[in-house]
Task: structure prediction
Amino acid sequence: MRPIILAALLASATVSTASAGDLLIHGGPIHTGVEATPSAQAVLIRDSRILFVGDLAAARAKAAKDLRDFDLKGAAAFPGFVDAHAHLTGVGLRELTLNLDQTGSVADLIKAVSAYAAAHPDGPIYGRGWIETHWPEKRFPNRADLDRAAPGRVIVLERSDGHASVASSAALAQAGVGKDTAAPAGGQILKGPDGEPTGMLIDHAQSLVAGVIPPPSEALKRQALEKAGALYASRGWTGLGNMSVEAPDLALMTALAAEKKFHLRVDNYMDPSGAAEVLAKGPFEDATGLIRTRGIKLYMDGALGSRGAALLEPYSDAEGTGLQLTPRDKGLALMKQARAVKAQVAMHAIGDRGNRMVLDWFGETLAGDTAARWRIEHAQIVADPDLPRFSKMGVIASMQPSHAIGDLYFAPARLGKARLHEGYRWNDMLQSGAVVAAGSDAPVEVGDPRIEFYAAVHRHSLTGFANEDWHLKEAVSRAQALKMLTWAPAYAAFAETDRGTLEAGKKADVSVFSKDLMTVAPAEILTAETVLTVVDGVVAFERGR
Result:
């Protein structure tokens, strides 16, 4: 925001001027996110901005005659919660296709696929969301499982993290994947003792079966984006960092916002295939100001669960050190293009080798520029010598608290106890001076701000489990968690002067939950309900309406 505009807005907060459509929020704890004044009695909103934060009587005196008075009745208000890393189209498609995120075993998976096949007797079957790390069978699903569920059907089921898929025999045959098929660079085809593919395809090997599942239509994607926007608002999110965005999806989102059918604040990081515009002219936004395009999203390695994360030393439970997904020359060329137009680079890195390589590439490209706010997405496993480099280089650590409380069931096996302390180190990052922006990586995870807040401050499973392997010292304070989910995502997208705290003059983004996340027992965080979500001064969700 230009300084003269901000000054005018701040000045307007000190005088009472009549205006239609004011919204007054009061009657419960209001956490501003401002260190000097962390709480307030009231927030007064006029149009798209916060007019006043402070004493209730003073707020009423400044309000318009047709004021809408929203009594919290003990519920708690916060700066708008922002999911720093999600995949919005995927969130919507998960709800509209075969959603496997609740499958608890291979047997459950077979049952779910069989039921879906019966309800959809024609055409190929695509699903997403399974993760085997908690299953009693202690193995990946395979093509025999899918063949049993729906004999002869073309089936591709994507793992929750998006870094592996299992395909049926019919899908493999249609794609021409067999015993002699070589895996592409950055990918792996798992094979059985007989040398035949098991159906499991890791990272870039998933491209081998991409053609057997028709891509979602424009109409389906439009529906998915509308559904995802409404779902996110209903959960209390006011915005997100949208990762690996395709150009057609950006166009759909922009159109929906213009039609007032989508009301969520989105910072987009484009897939390289659709990044031509942002790489040519730098960051831009739509007419509503809700849809901003910040830069590009790249991948350095795969995921820890499917052993695609790039490690400095071999996995403790298998051979190999993981996969590098982006060739050095290609990655550096894209980074140089981005830097030339002041676009941001967000790069996925899970393993300690993956994170080190990204830091090296960033350092080589930025050449000492610490103000670019380039981001490492996930930053899950970071070796001790590399930890201080984030703060020193001005690199944002975009991390997902929920990953830890899921991954720590299997991470000890993948990493071994000696290097387990390198994992999910939010507190270490903050203590080193790095900015940590928290998110969910939905649809990899549920995409629920309560879960992310709970995981950050408690670092226990959703059922309350933890042990010494979980390194509870990495849990953060509630004030730190709030900052990670509000101010830090704004900072990570060059928007901290406009949002991230409840202050006069800032954009009116507010999240209200039925329980005070700052004071209730950890388990109660998960039972809080979204009461109100305000985005840009508009009520995007209200419980009961």
